[in-house]
Amino acid sequence: MTEHPSTQFARPVEASPPAPGADGSRSRIALLLIVCAQFLIILDSSIVTVALPNIQHSLHFTAVGVQGVVTAYNVAFAGALILGGRVGDMVGRRRMFWIGMVAFALTSLLCGLAVNATMLIVARALQGFSAAVIAPTALALLTTTFPEGPVRNRAMSTFSVATVLGFVGGLVLSGPLVDWLGWPSVFYVAVPVGLVVAALAPRYVNPVPARRSRIDVLGAVLVTAAVAVIVIAPGQGATHGWASARFLLTLAAGLVLLGAFVLVETRAAEPLVRLGFFRVRTVRAANAVTLIGGAMNGAGYLLLTLYLQEVLHYTPIQAGLAVAPTGVANVLLGRVAGKLVTRFGVRTMMTVATAVGALSIAALALFLRPHQSYGVLVVPIVLMGMCFLMTTVSATIGAVAGVSNAEQGLAGGLRQTSLQLGIALGVAAFVSVAASRTASVSGGAHPMAADAALVSGFQVGLLALAAFALLAALIAWAGFRPARSRV
Fold first, then answer.
1. CA 157 to CA 213: how far, in whole Å?
2. What is the rounded CA–CA span in Å between residue 131 and residue 117?
3. How far apart are CA 125 and CA 227, in angstroms?
4. How big is the chain by its Cα radius of gyration, in Å?
5. Which secondary structure element, helix H or strand E, spans residue 202, and what is its range?
6. Which of 188, 240, 395, 443 has its CA 20 to 30 A from that of 161?
7. Beta strands in 258-312 (DSSP E)
8. Where is the stretch described as Disordered (predicted)?
9. First-residue to last-residue Cα distance in the chain
10. pLDDT, tens digit (0-9, with 9 covering 90-100), for 114-126
11. The predicted structure's pLDDT at residue 210
12. Angle at the Cα of 309 (from 305 to 313), degrees rounded to 5?
């Protein structure tokens, strides 16, 4: 159904989906809008990193306090994902997608206009909540627009490319934007794109009939708080020690909240999350692989960029450009990734991608030297990025396969939550491993000795990450094994 241009910013009304013979060009535009939305919300989780020193100086943050600019977004994003996906299932996904895009554009503008630390932290939290509305509804809209099979696999491939490119794009774009236009520009970039997506969504994105029901408010509060606290816990462990009271108490609080959520859901007449959903073996396996893939992605790129800047003394722009070939390779791979999953199956491609990804991370670790040429590093860097993409494609397809249309928002929210938890866990745990190793072997004040200690730390951190990645290969192979026939 095409709406008059004057109603493009009007709140969209859910209706019945169009007939199966809908115009293919309309579906392609819908996919483009969904992909743009996914790219933006992932971009904004990484693009701010390089801008932090400028933000700290401009808004008078403390050295520790400025990390709240990252934490506020990530905690709000991860914490509200399941709620965002489920509300989309209940009240209409296109409506929630539109609301989320408008809110994301406006909160991005608010971030750029921030005049003090408190205003920026609050704006980043609101931006994270907006992203939590967009992410699961975008994935659910994609799965309900394209039927399960080769067509959906190709669309999923494009969606996954946007996820990976959003993370890499943040690393590449942030340096030039900060140098040329100042730190607010890293937030302003999302404003026009977000508003254009919001304007076109009512015209091109298929509406899906909502499953009208009461929202389980208590369950929503508990699951949002539980995930948010659990996301915070790894950072506490990395900062204060994994045996510290802060880490243990934060983790315990998150688990207690999660337990309370499960108890409430078992007794709710209309639960926010149907707990039987988690009994599906492939859903559990896909989300476990997604979590580990998030750790591979977040920790792998962060350890690499730290090595490039702290050991090889690359500027932030040079470090961003060093990972740019990964983006080019993933665009090319994205054209065939869905076809590969269709041809060889989710189980095979997920297992191969995670196993080869683990080997590429290990190879990168072994190539690190105090003085190393970029030409030696580029092959494992590109291979690592391509494996991240194939893992994302296959795990995303696996996470939503066989799920009813009524629960696609829940499936999308759970998948995105697993990814964010993985990034938080990976960054905190494996950077902590690297830092501990560096501290244990550093013993000289000479710059060369310091570089050697840093390299040793980064190597151990990457090798530990590679071992963790191998666990994903085992989960993929076991979790997607064919069901045994009963005689």
1. 33
2. 21
3. 15
4. 22
5. helix 190-204
6. 188
7. none
8. 1-21
9. 50
10. 999 999 999 999 9
11. 64
12. 150
